Amino acid sequence: MIEQSTINPIQPEQRTLELDVIRGFAIFGILIVNMQFFSSAYVYLLRNRITLWPDEGDKLAKLLIDLFAAGKFYTMFSFLFGIGMMIFLERARQKGKRGLRLFLRRVTILLFFGILHAFFIWSGDILFEYAVLAFLLVLFERARPWFVLLSSCFFLLLRPVLTYFDAYQKITIPLYKASGLGTQLFDPSGLLEQANYVFSSGSYGEQIVQRLTDFVYQYGTFWALFPIVFAMFLLGVYVAKKRIFHDVASNMRLIRSVWIGSLIVALLSYSIKAELYTTNLHSFRYLYGQWIISLFDPALCLFYVTSLLQLLQIQSVRVKLAPLAAVGRMAISNYLASSLICTTIFYSYGFGLFNKVGPAKGLLLACLIYPLLMVGSIVWLRYFRYGPVEWLWRSLTYGELQPMRLERPHQTNS
């Protein structure tokens, strides 16, 4: 059948450099932010309001990470994920009904990747959440761009409303009770003590059990990120529908407008934070302020994206940023490789540095690991079409082994 023979994954020569560079940049930012989660039981430290690193250098590093990185790169990755999934879905839809099945199979495989990552490597996985929400993208595949953009704005502003009405607490408590973990999830100090012991001294088997607890706990609280993740998904769908990345030069006026506007919104959002501390938590003024504050991370994310798009139009800068594209082409492989490297560094089965590396050293460590990922990606892509996980994902999606090695042109003796 023609349908069977014409549905193929995107080949390396069909990829967009801008998308891959931004994706590679996002992997770096995610590594910086995740370092504090790798090196300690950071989620439980936050819940217990404990700071392990009071030194001025660590305070400064933490401030810089929170201000310029935290919340900006998972939103960027979500935005790019929405673009990539939409490109796949549109391309598959053009081939007939089998295209939708391919998309759903692709997302289901990603779901299993996320589960394996969360239980066997690191519980702070984001792939599971992406996969769950990706199923909903099908509903927007044929929607008009204006409706997709409006829906993105709706979900972006939904989180403060849910917080205002205590919706997260009302849902999280029943989830914890239904999990079978009992009162354990309502004991932050006990969770912190247990996690500290297991990851600094426990066996790998004990850590798998601990990751199950962490996964349930985190998705009882982190599901609050779902609205903003899905909002960025939809923004990526909108950009894909408008084909902005297909011809960046022709859309430069729009890109510059977003660049200026996103910076203004980010500055306005950040400036209003101090005022909210004196506002009644259940007043409409507080809700209004939360709406503005909720725009800070997505706005700064868009500022980064549009800054890179403009820089990539300068040929000399484009050449210097091109190595980031290798990381971006192997984004999921590098994301998982980061988890393998960092858990080996910090957990007991590796170098055992859990709770021994503060934000300043963690930032330095991220800056040392990322070049290794970059060099590894560049070398790998000299010989192979895809990253190892990307190849496996494609092969499982299409139900057959995809060509892996690059074909080298035959050299003839003159």
Automatic annotation (TrEMBL):
Alphabetical keyword list: Membrane, Transmembrane, Transmembrane helix
InterPro entries: Bact_Transport_Assoc, DUF418
Domain of life: Bacteria
Regions that span the bilayer: 25-46, 67-89, 109-139, 146-165, 222-241, 253-272, 292-312, 332-351, 363-384
Pfam family name, one: DUF418
Domain DUF418: 240-399
Keyword Transmembrane helix in annotation: yes
Protein name stated in the entry: DUF418 domain-containing protein
Organism, as annotated: Tumebacillus algifaecis
